Each structure stands twice: as structure tokens, then as C-alpha cells.
Amino acid sequence: MTESNRAQHSDAVTTAWQFTEQVPHGRDLGMQVVSVNGNQVCMRLTPQPWMFAEEDTQEICTSVLYSLADSAGGLAVFAGALELMPIATLDLRMDYLRPAIGDRALLAVATCRHLTDEVAFIHCDILSESDSALLATANATFMRNTQGQRFQAGGRKKEGA
């Protein structure tokens, strides 16, 4: 790894660790970065009662799993690219295999599978931390380098970013 790539990787890792403190959505949900290893990120979320789909069950609302997968996937883009840049989720598909029960912490393990200059391809598994049961899988694409020309209604270009 060149000195430049090492510095960029360090920046990406630093960003991942700061994610839980600086991104309000992640902080509000209680997401924590567990590890960043190469192109893979592991995040943890401890469920809270307000995350349950219904008051009389302890099943976690699926949108919480979706948010966890999206956040871990975004961080995996930084880890895989070894650089920081504006990104945007293009597509995220989740397959729910079994309910996530609120008495167990969740782990999201997101891996950057492939990068092009413009798109990152991510796979993410959501697991129950206590028994490593696979709860859901996700595949996502993220647009890279989203900063640039802006467009206004009517097709007119607006300068700036």
C-alpha cells in the first residue's frame, strides 16, 4: 500500500469510527462500528423497545434492519475505496429470512464486492449477535463521487456542489 493509500485508508477508518457520533440517524438508533477490516465493516445495534413493530411483540421493525444495512454498506464503500467521497444509495434490496427479536443485539457485516469509478456493489448480512443466526441479507449499489453539477427543474444546469 502506498503512503497515499495508507493515509486515505486511515481517513476511511476514522470516518467509520466517527459515524456513530456524527451522523444523527446512526446515533439515534444506537449504531456502533465494531470493526473495519479491509473492504468489510461490522456494525452493531442494540434494539430498544421503541423499535418494536408492535407493542405486544419484541419483533424489531424491518425498517431498523434496513437502516443498519444501509449504514454498514455505506461505510463499506469507504473501506473498499480507500478514500472518502460523497456517496448516495442507488438501490438496496433486503431479503428477510426470519424475525429479528428485540432481546438480541444485531450485527451487520457489509462487504464491498466490486468498485467502478462511479458505482460500488455491496453485500450485507444481518445476524443475531447471540447465536449468529442469519436474519436478513442485503445487496446494495452506491453511487460514488456524487458531488458535481446540480440540475434544477426544467433541465437547466446549476453550478456548484
Automatic annotation (TrEMBL):
Annotated ranges, domain Thioesterase: 64-131
Chain segments annotated as transmembrane: none
GO molecular function, one term: thiolester hydrolase activity
SUPFAM superfamilies: Thioesterase/thiol ester dehydrase-isomerase
Signal peptide residue numbers: none
Name by which UniProt lists this protein: Thioesterase domain-containing protein
Species the sequence originates in: Marinobacter manganoxydans MnI7-9
